[in-house]
Amino acid sequence: MNNQKVALVTGSNRGIGFETAKQLGEKGITVILTARDLNVAQDAAASLNKSGIDAYGIKLDVTNADDRKAAAAYIESNFGKLDILINNAGVAPKESLFVSKTAETTEEEFQYIYNTNLFSVVYLTNELLPLLKKSDAGRIVNLSSILGSLTIHAQPESPIAGFRVLSYNSAKAALNVFTIHLAAELEGTGIKVNAAHPGWVQTELGGNEQAPMSITDGAKTSVELALLSEDGPNGKFIHMGEELPW
């Protein structure tokens, strides 16, 4: 069995996912990058290899059950275990995250958002749990968003009142519930499960111009939660070392 720590980062051919894999790789962790296209994933891994990072690229459409099973088989065959799972892959509404809408949210939009941002995270995590349980200190990081915070949305002068997009926000809130429940269920196994709010980051999803945070900073919360010590938080919602309200 490979004694080196192994991390899988979903949706990691670009943006926060790629930067997260890069930062983990720079700390000596073997990283598996994923994309819906094998060549794209392998190209991303090759670019990290040039910097001396031990990186591999695999095809993983998180919404595809066969891809999820193949990813687990690949990790089992090549590494025998998984130490870090970062559920980074996600989608935004095809229209905009900046236009509040509730009553007119379509069935198609709910299915599109929930399939990737919630259901696939649950299914992939369950698929990989046997491998995470083989780690001495398994870490699961779910990429959430402050837009999933019911507490902040409910404030009379909510700072995120302009972003009430029901499909996206409710999926992130549900992802937060999954985080809490799974952390409790895995208590005592050595596996920690936390939700990360990366911040408003300059990516295609976040908006390149308006967002105040760089991609480098946007990856820091995921990396920090991936490398938690034994006494680190579990079942929490974190941004840059600070706990956020659910």
TrEMBL record:
Keyword set, alphabetical order: NADP, Oxidoreductase
RNA-binding listed as a keyword: no
Top-level taxon of origin: Bacteria
A GO term, aspect molecular function: oxidoreductase activity, acting on the CH-OH group of donors, NAD or NADP as acceptor
SUPFAM superfamilies from the UniProt entry: NAD(P)-binding Rossmann-fold domains
InterPro entries recorded: CBR1-like, NAD(P)-bd_dom_sf, SDR_fam
Family: Belongs to the short-chain dehydrogenases/reductases (SDR) family.
Protein name: SDR family oxidoreductase
